[in-house]
Amino acid sequence: MSEKQLIVLTVNDAEYELLVEPRWTLLDVLRHEVGLTGTHVGCEHGVCGACTILVDGEPVRACLMYAVQAEGYEIRTVEALGTPEQPNDLQQAFSEHHGLQCGFCTPGFLMLAEGFLAQEPAPTREGIREAMSANLCRCTGYQTIVDAIEETAARRRGEASGPVAEPLDPGKETVG
Ligand code: FES
Ligand code: FES
């Protein structure tokens, strides 16, 4: 067993002092040390995207990053979006369009989509499909996921009716 190191992680606007082994992934530390289990564990080798989070706004696979590498970055997990009682607009659109079935892949898709929409506020359907092809879903067939993201983008641009969430800013209060 390696010697543990003291690190400070900034997750969803909160700071956590953590004693971690250098070999522990950010995914395991988020789940087991920070207690945020919304980020799911799938393949653990960078293929499925179930563990996708935002690091300084960029979608990152948390299973491919060591926790000790994440110091100094602004980390956002699915818990930053909304709650079952108060989903954000993207979560609401996933629900409206049936963009999930078993839900295992959903946290990863939500964070991938949030990072994508922050960079591409007016994406083409093809662009959404290409971006979402980074993650795997075994249930939905992807059409409904693409529909949900397309509608969220349109709502955020004011081109469709429905709820619109504040963008995920580093300084924004975490919901829930
Ligand atoms: S669990 Fe990280 S990509 Fe599959
Ligand atoms: S909803 Fe089941 S894997 Fe995507």
From TrEMBL:
Positions of region (Disordered): 154-176
InterPro entries: 2Fe-2S-bd, 2Fe-2S-bd_dom_sf, 2Fe-2S_ferredoxin-like_sf, 2Fe-2S_ferredoxin-type, 2Fe2S_fd_BS, Beta-grasp_dom_sf, Diverse_Oxidoreductases
Pfam family for this entry, one: Fer2_2
Top-rank taxon, per record: Bacteria
Start and end residues of each 2Fe-2S ferredoxin-type domain: 5-81
CDD domains recorded: fer2
Keyword entries, A-Z: 2Fe-2S, Iron, Iron-sulfur, Metal-binding, Oxidoreductase
Protein name per its UniProtKB record: (2Fe-2S)-binding protein
